[in-house]
Amino acid sequence: MRFKSFLLALALPASLSACGQDGSEETVATEANSMMESENIALGNDGVSVASSGAQDFVNKAAASDRFEIESSKLAEASSMSPAVKEFAAMMIKAHTDSTAKLKSTLASNPSDVVVNDVLNAEQQAQLDELKTKKGADFDTAYAAAQVGGHEKTLTELRSYASNGDNDALKTFAQDLVPIVTDHLNQARKLK
């Protein structure tokens, strides 16, 4: 692959002049460095393919989803006035605590460089902050909407990773969660 970059760098002056550019040494060097940096990003500095970050990205999203569901559902215990919302929230706390434990167990039995990072994304943090300001019926409405939206996104991520993931154990984990998350989504829709 480095040879390919070298050949591209050699061919660059001719292609630049053909396109009406001056082909100055500075332009050629900049373009060649850019191409080689692209090669290094794709292959790693030693020319060996680097592992895809798909597994780590999936784990981060799954862990953050669990954390969001747990934290928002804990708020429901104090802020909701609906017995149905409180019951759903208790189920979410248990289900997503179990999901996180299963994710950690899956990673432990399938050694890799992937680690659990449950940092909420900006949208999740904003929704959580918004939920903290609500009480009663206002909370119930906002919580139900957050649950529907969160479970829809999670379901999309699970299905995508189950089909196209780069780690077989995590693909199985994702596939196993699809029916559970589908059920949660259907129940969350009934809260509205």
Give a short overview.
With 192 residues, the protein is mainly alpha-helical. It has helices at residues 2-18, 25-43, 54-79, 83-108, 122-131, 136-164, 168-191.
Characterization of the model:
The structure is a single chain. This protein has 7 helices and no strands. Helices cover 79% and strands 0% of the residues. The chain is mainly α. Helix 6 runs antiparallel to helix 7 (168-191). The radius of gyration is 24 Å and the shape is elongated. The protein has 2 domains: 2-43, no CATH class; 54-191, Ferritin, core subunit, four-helix bundle (Ferritin, Up-down Bundle), CATH 1.20.1260.10. The chain has helices at residues 2-18, 25-43, 54-79, 83-108, 122-131, 136-164, 168-191.
The CATH homologous superfamily of the largest domain is termed Ferritin, core subunit, four-helix bundle
Residue share in helices?
Answer: over 70%
For the termini, the CA-CA separation is 55 Å
Mean pLDDT score:
79
CATH topology of the largest domain: Ferritin
Class from secondary-structure proportions = mainly alpha
Largest sheet: none
Q: How many independent structural domains?
A: 2
CATH C-level category of the largest domain: Mainly Alpha
Q: Tell me what the CATH architecture of the largest domain is.
A: Up-down Bundle
Shape: elongated
Low-confidence stretches: 1-52
Please provide the count of β strands: 0
Number of helices: 7
Radius of gyration equals: 24 Å
Give the SSE order as H and E letters.
HHHHHHH
Bin the strand percentage: under 5%
